[in-house]
């Protein structure tokens, strides 16, 4: 694996405040992004060679003022998370004001608003092959929704701190990271049970499934962990994965702010405020993390 040519990296602009989340449509034709300004933008991801800012904006839903969600289409607070269904039909967005909005991904028309969380919505994921949606929140719970039927299904409890991340694939289960409660959890929906995993020293801030049997998480102690869903301790742990920084005369690790696997492969990426994205290979049956290269940003 080689780092990309810097000239091949494209920039898309349009939000007034920092971008908080984005998804790519299952057919790889569109990019949806959202921001602290409450706006939602749909772009065509076809880039003419050599051009910057060339992703054509197909739809812009501006953010509004708090309390105007019913009158305006967009969010009225920071959008924190986003998910798209595997058939590309539905887009879901969650905000700091406890709301989940469901959109027609083709037209960017808002279809529903889901309420029920008691704090910011921090994670969203559709079960692959279905329109079942999982949501996670700073209220420490996970909720299950049927988007096609505009229906709430159930609430799952267990985390002792805010939930910072959530992911799912095709099985009727999801995984979450629990911030400072120091746990990663696997929720088995039909059995109404959960498995608890421990291994990081700091706040676990992000999590993603690599395949149906393995997941990766990152924490503010600078560590990246590989997990098997049948083992409650990490299969591999890379400490200080993005190195160290000096802060107020002390050496502190760069915390891990994002993890992203290439699904069903041995390749994954991690992000940090160190100013680079790092690529890793999962070796020895997911029992080893091998650094491949850094991509400066």
TrEMBL record:
<keyword id="KW-0694">RNA-binding</keyword>
<dbReference type="GO" id="GO:0032040">
    <property type="term" value="C:small-subunit processome"/>
</dbReference>
<dbReference type="InterPro" id="IPR019775">
    <property type="entry name" value="WD40_repeat_CS"/>
</dbReference>
<dbReference type="GO" id="GO:0034511">
    <property type="term" value="F:U3 snoRNA binding"/>
</dbReference>
<feature type="repeat" description="WD">
    <location>
        <begin position="114"/>
        <end position="155"/>
    </location>
</feature>
<dbReference type="InterPro" id="IPR015943">
    <property type="entry name" value="WD40/YVTN_repeat-like_dom_sf"/>
</dbReference>
<keyword id="KW-0488">Methylation</keyword>
<keyword id="KW-1017">Isopeptide bond</keyword>
<feature type="repeat" description="WD">
    <location>
        <begin position="12"/>
        <end position="40"/>
    </location>
</feature>
<comment type="similarity">
    <text>Belongs to the WD repeat RRP9 family.</text>
</comment>
<feature type="repeat" description="WD">
    <location>
        <begin position="72"/>
        <end position="113"/>
    </location>
</feature>
<keyword id="KW-0597">Phosphoprotein</keyword>
<keyword id="KW-0007">Acetylation</keyword>
<keyword id="KW-0677">Repeat</keyword>
<comment type="function">
    <text>Component of a nucleolar small nuclear ribonucleoprotein particle (snoRNP) thought to participate in the processing and modification of pre-ribosomal RNA (pre-rRNA). Part of the small subunit (SSU) processome, first precursor of the small eukaryotic ribosomal subunit. During the assembly of the SSU processome in the nucleolus, many ribosome biogenesis factors, an RNA chaperone and ribosomal proteins associate with the nascent pre-rRNA and work in concert to generate RNA folding, modifications, rearrangements and cleavage as well as targeted degradation of pre-ribosomal RNA by the RNA exosome.</text>
</comment>
<dbReference type="Pfam" id="PF00400">
    <property type="entry name" value="WD40"/>
</dbReference>
<comment type="subunit">
    <text>Interacts specifically with the U3 small nucleolar RNA (U3 snoRNA). Binds a sub-fragment of the U3 snoRNA surrounding the B/C motif (3UBC). This association with the U3BC RNA is dependent on the binding of a protein called 15.5K to the box B/C motif. The association of the protein with the U3BC RNA was found to be also dependent on a conserved RNA structure that flanks the box B/C motif. Part of the small subunit (SSU) processome, composed of more than 70 proteins and the RNA chaperone small nucleolar RNA (snoRNA) U3.</text>
</comment>
<feature type="repeat" description="WD">
    <location>
        <begin position="197"/>
        <end position="237"/>
    </location>
</feature>
<feature type="repeat" description="WD">
    <location>
        <begin position="156"/>
        <end position="197"/>
    </location>
</feature>
<protein>
    <recommendedName>
        <fullName>U3 small nucleolar RNA-interacting protein 2</fullName>
    </recommendedName>
</protein>
<dbReference type="InterPro" id="IPR001680">
    <property type="entry name" value="WD40_rpt"/>
</dbReference>
<dbReference type="InterPro" id="IPR039241">
    <property type="entry name" value="Rrp9-like"/>
</dbReference>
<keyword id="KW-0853">WD repeat</keyword>
<dbReference type="InterPro" id="IPR036322">
    <property type="entry name" value="WD40_repeat_dom_sf"/>
</dbReference>
<keyword id="KW-0698">rRNA processing</keyword>
<keyword id="KW-0539">Nucleus</keyword>
<dbReference type="GO" id="GO:0006364">
    <property type="term" value="P:rRNA processing"/>
</dbReference>
<keyword id="KW-0687">Ribonucleoprotein</keyword>
<keyword id="KW-0832">Ubl conjugation</keyword>
<dbReference type="InterPro" id="IPR020472">
    <property type="entry name" value="WD40_PAC1"/>
</dbReference>
């Amino acid at each position: 694996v080689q780092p990309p040519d810097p000239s091949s990296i494209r920039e898309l602009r349009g939000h007034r405040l920092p971008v908080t989340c984005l998804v790519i449509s299952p057919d790889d034709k569109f990019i949806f992004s959202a921001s602290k300004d409450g706006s939602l933008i749909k772009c065509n991801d076809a880039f003419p060679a050599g051009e910057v800012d060339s992703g054509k904006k197909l739809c812009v839903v501006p953010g509004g003022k708090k309390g105007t969600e019913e009158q305006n289409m967009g969010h009225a607070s920071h959008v924190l998370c986003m998910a798209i269904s595997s058939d590309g039909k539905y887009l879901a967005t969650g905000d700091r004001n406890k709301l989940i909005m469901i959109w027609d991904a083709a037209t960017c028309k808002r279809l529903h608003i889901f309420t029920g969380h008691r704090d910011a919505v921090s994670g969203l994921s559709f079960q692959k092959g279905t329109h079942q949606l999982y949501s996670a929140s700073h209220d420490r719970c996970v909720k299950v929704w049927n988007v096609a039927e505009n229906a709430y299904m159930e609430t799952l409890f267990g985390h002792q701190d805010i939930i910072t991340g959530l992911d799912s694939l095709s099985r009727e289960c999801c995984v979450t990271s629990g911030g400072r409660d120091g746990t990663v959890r696997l929720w088995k929906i039909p059995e109404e049970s959960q498995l608890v995993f421990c291994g990081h020293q700091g706040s676990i801030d992000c999590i993603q499934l690599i395949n149906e049997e393995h997941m990766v998480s990152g924490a503010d102690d600078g560590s990246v962990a590989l997990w098997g869903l049948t083992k409650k301790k990490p299969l591999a742990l890379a400490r200080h994965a993005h190195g160290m920084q000096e802060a107020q005369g002390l050496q502190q690790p760069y915390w891990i702010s994002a993890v992203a696997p290439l699904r069903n492969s041995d390749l994954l990426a991690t992000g940090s405020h160190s100013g680079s994205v790092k690529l890793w290979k999962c070796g020895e049956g997911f029992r080893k993390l091998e650094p491949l290269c850094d991509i400066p940003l």
